[in-house]
């Protein structure tokens, strides 16, 4: 781990374990301050970013002045951060439970308040794509308006982590603002592949014919195949590796670490252990005999494309890792050939955290911190693109005149799940 210290001065709000901080640090930025009200996430951030101060407090309690004083900066070059927005997760985009009044969905206002106080030249805000199209795009428009009224030119994009070398089909919204008229040059994708299972062959043909300079999406197995077998509830916090890395990705994340940390799996109740035995690799809850399924499954149509109880295919990227990835009932979190959920370290590998990045807290907290994070590799690609953009010329951006149409197009593309790589 190299020390930060000299690069552009960064404050990370809602810093969690520090996935975003880690990517910016790797790209040479001087991340000097994090803030989060989760005490264990703060301890993780402090452990892995010893040069940074971490404020374990509620964002509502601090002013820009406080942040400057704590960071030791005279001014801030870049504000980064991902305010939680649980109500707008993509799963909930049609759900009536997503409410604009939910205080958890108002945290972006705190982010904007502190951008207004500190007036960094740039900011990068990460969030779930659903925020953009909630209430037919009104919510996203309001967020953009707020930043524009502070004098920032806004750009946004929904990025797929797998396109940047992360072995995960995680889509996230990135909003970048600049207040001196500079244009953000988005990072070029480095990898290519299908999101939908039925389009894999089509995308691979397209890649080989038209984009041979792009690598194929990394797979779950590229990320975790070197890790020792353990059982549900098993594993230890610290042990030695049992074999050499099997892929370049594994070797890169191991770096110089000779110890394997957090390869621990959450215990599963017997009833879930019995149920996942019915699900083979690449299958989901639909293979479980109806009479054995918990009652709530009776309401789910068998044709619904949910990943509940899914056991992912090792030859594809992982599905999105969320805070609950220790709970096999809620997503594709069962190991491909072992009857258990992913371990915390497997989750960290899927998120592209280096193996020497330590998570502090109990196992549930570690799962939460890992699932919440921006994949450091994606954050790093954004940070590198920002470095290029910083030295670019100022130019007036031609923004979408009809924001709602733009949002509708983005939603339609995400819902098609990139069936055809036509946009490229
Ligand atoms: C999506 S996570 C951020 C993850 C982080 N960017 C990373 O890459 O690891 C959002 C974080 O916001 C924190 N949070 C939520 N409400 C907060 C508040 N009112 N004040 C401070 N932190 C808050 C949560 O504890 C959580 O760690």
From TrEMBL:
Per UniProt, the keywords (alphabetical) are: Methyltransferase, Restriction system, S-adenosyl-L-methionine, Transferase
Q: Which family does it belong to?
A: Belongs to the class I-like SAM-binding methyltransferase superfamily. C5-methyltransferase family.
Q: Is Nucleotidyltransferase given among the entry's keywords?
A: no
What's the protein called, per UniProt? Answer: DNA (cytosine-5-)-methyltransferase
Under the heading PANTHER family, the entry gives: CYTOSINE-SPECIFIC METHYLTRANSFERASE, DNA (CYTOSINE-5)-METHYLTRANSFERASE 1
EC identifiers of the protein: 2.1.1.37
Report the Pfam families cross-referenced here.
Answer: DNA_methylase
- The coiled-coil regions, if any, are none
The Gene Ontology biological process annotation of the record reads: methylation
Species, as recorded: Pseudonocardia lutea
Q: Which domain of life is it from?
A: Bacteria
GO MF terms here are: DNA (cytosine-5-)-methyltransferase activity
Keyword Methyltransferase recorded: yes
